[in-house]
Amino acid sequence: MGKLAKAVLGVALLSGVVLAVPSKPVATRETKAQERFEHVKARIINMIDKRISFLENHKACVEKAQNWKELRACRPKRKIWGRPIRGKYTGKSIRKWKKK
After folding, report:
1. Which of 70, 78, 87, 91 is a Cys-bridge partner for 65, taking CB atoms 3.0 to 4.6 Å apart?
2. DSSP-based three-state secondary structure for 94
3. Rounded to two decimals, what is the model's pTM?
Protein backbone atom coordinates (compact mmCIF):
# COMPACT_ATOMS: atom_id res chain seq x y z
CA MET A 1 0.00 0.00 0.00
CA GLY A 2 1.33 3.37 -0.93
CA LYS A 3 1.54 6.45 1.21
CA LEU A 4 -1.31 8.09 -0.65
CA ALA A 5 -3.60 5.10 -0.11
CA LYS A 6 -2.78 5.04 3.62
CA ALA A 7 -3.48 8.75 3.88
CA VAL A 8 -6.83 8.40 2.10
CA LEU A 9 -7.73 5.41 4.28
CA GLY A 10 -6.76 7.35 7.45
CA VAL A 11 -8.82 10.36 6.44
CA ALA A 12 -11.80 8.13 5.63
CA LEU A 13 -11.57 6.39 9.01
CA LEU A 14 -11.25 9.65 10.94
CA SER A 15 -14.13 11.28 9.08
CA GLY A 16 -16.29 8.25 9.86
CA VAL A 17 -15.44 8.54 13.57
CA VAL A 18 -16.18 12.26 13.59
CA LEU A 19 -19.50 11.80 11.83
CA ALA A 20 -20.49 8.94 14.14
CA VAL A 21 -20.24 11.11 17.29
CA PRO A 22 -23.63 12.69 17.97
CA SER A 23 -23.41 16.44 18.31
CA LYS A 24 -25.42 18.63 20.65
CA PRO A 25 -28.32 20.45 19.07
CA VAL A 26 -27.39 24.01 18.36
CA ALA A 27 -29.12 26.30 20.85
CA THR A 28 -30.88 29.14 19.16
CA ARG A 29 -30.95 32.66 20.43
CA GLU A 30 -34.56 32.23 21.58
CA THR A 31 -33.83 29.14 23.67
CA LYS A 32 -30.85 30.83 25.30
CA ALA A 33 -32.98 33.88 26.04
CA GLN A 34 -35.71 31.67 27.52
CA GLU A 35 -33.18 29.82 29.71
CA ARG A 36 -31.77 33.14 30.93
CA PHE A 37 -35.28 34.41 31.64
CA GLU A 38 -36.12 31.32 33.70
CA HIS A 39 -32.85 31.64 35.65
CA VAL A 40 -33.43 35.32 36.46
CA LYS A 41 -37.07 34.68 37.36
CA ALA A 42 -36.08 31.91 39.80
CA ARG A 43 -33.46 34.18 41.38
CA ILE A 44 -35.95 37.00 41.86
CA ILE A 45 -38.52 34.66 43.42
CA ASN A 46 -35.82 33.31 45.76
CA MET A 47 -34.91 36.84 46.91
CA ILE A 48 -38.58 37.73 47.47
CA ASP A 49 -39.01 34.59 49.59
CA LYS A 50 -35.96 35.57 51.67
CA ARG A 51 -37.37 39.05 52.25
CA ILE A 52 -40.78 37.68 53.24
CA SER A 53 -39.14 35.28 55.69
CA PHE A 54 -37.03 38.06 57.21
CA LEU A 55 -40.03 40.36 57.59
CA GLU A 56 -42.18 37.64 59.15
CA ASN A 57 -39.45 36.84 61.69
CA HIS A 58 -38.91 40.52 62.45
CA LYS A 59 -42.66 41.11 62.89
CA ALA A 60 -42.92 38.15 65.27
CA CYS A 61 -40.02 39.49 67.33
CA VAL A 62 -41.57 42.96 67.57
CA GLU A 63 -44.96 41.54 68.52
CA LYS A 64 -43.34 39.38 71.21
CA ALA A 65 -41.39 42.31 72.75
CA GLN A 66 -42.62 43.39 76.20
CA ASN A 67 -40.24 46.30 76.83
CA TRP A 68 -37.77 48.64 75.09
CA LYS A 69 -34.81 46.33 75.61
CA GLU A 70 -36.56 43.43 73.88
CA LEU A 71 -37.74 45.73 71.12
CA ARG A 72 -34.21 46.98 70.48
CA ALA A 73 -33.00 43.38 70.40
CA CYS A 74 -35.22 42.83 67.35
CA ARG A 75 -33.19 45.31 65.32
CA PRO A 76 -30.97 43.58 62.78
CA LYS A 77 -27.27 44.05 63.46
CA ARG A 78 -25.88 42.42 60.36
CA LYS A 79 -26.43 42.40 56.64
CA ILE A 80 -29.93 41.98 55.33
CA TRP A 81 -30.47 40.59 51.86
CA GLY A 82 -26.76 40.87 51.04
CA ARG A 83 -26.55 44.62 51.72
CA PRO A 84 -25.12 46.34 54.80
CA ILE A 85 -27.55 48.24 56.97
CA ARG A 86 -27.11 51.97 56.51
CA GLY A 87 -26.95 54.25 59.50
CA LYS A 88 -27.93 53.55 63.03
CA TYR A 89 -31.49 53.82 64.19
CA THR A 90 -30.84 56.73 66.53
CA GLY A 91 -32.56 60.01 67.16
CA LYS A 92 -29.55 61.77 65.67
CA SER A 93 -30.15 60.30 62.21
CA ILE A 94 -33.88 61.11 62.44
CA ARG A 95 -33.04 64.76 63.19
CA LYS A 96 -30.98 64.88 60.00
CA TRP A 97 -33.98 63.68 58.00
CA LYS A 98 -36.26 66.33 59.52
CA LYS A 99 -33.86 69.14 58.55
CA LYS A 100 -33.98 68.19 54.89
Report:
1. 70
2. helix
3. 0.48
